Amino acid sequence: SSLSIPSSLFKPIVSLGFDDNVLTLLVPSHFVIEQIEEHYLSLLKKVLPRIYGASVKLLYRVQIVRQPEVL
């Protein structure tokens, strides 16, 4: 069976870097974090150690979009 992963969920995610066994991802909202944690965390726990090593940790940073100020 193939796993269907919505590109709309993962496409806006940007890797900010990998330092000291921590992979930092920039995500557009807390909603995206919730969806990843709820539906894809088990998959990431299998895949990320294969790529980054057994002690990899995942850190999310939520992108802050500033609203224009009303003068």
Supply database-style keywords.
71 residues; alpha+beta; 3 strands
Summarize the structure in words.
This protein has 71 residues and is α+β, with helices and mostly antiparallel strands. Helix content is 37%, strand content 25%. Strands 1-2-3 form a three-stranded mixed β-sheet. Strand 1 and strand 2 (22-27) form a beta hairpin. The longest helix is centred in the middle third of the chain and has 12 residues, at 41-52. It starts with 6 loop residues before the first helix and ends in a 9-residue tail after the last strand. 0% of the residues are buried.
**Could you tell me the strand content as a percent range?**
25-35%
Described by the principal axes of the CA atoms, the overall outline is globular
Strand order of the largest sheet: 1-2-3
Structural class, from helix and strand content? alpha+beta
Count of helix runs:
3
SSE string: HEEHHE
Mean pLDDT score, rounded? 89
According to DSSP, the number of beta strands is 3
Task: Give the biggest sheet.
Answer: 3 strands, mixed
Radius of gyration of CA atoms, rounded to a whole number: 14 Å
Distance between the termini: 55 Å
Bin the helical content.
25-40%
- Give the low-pLDDT segments: none
Give the topology, please.
Elements: H1 7-10, E1 14-19, E2 22-27, H2 30-39, H3 41-52, E3 57-62
Parallel strand pairs: 2-3
Antiparallel strand pairs: 1-2
Question: How is this structure best summarized?
Answer:
37% of the residues lie in helices and 25% in strands. The protein has 71 residues and is of the alpha+beta class.
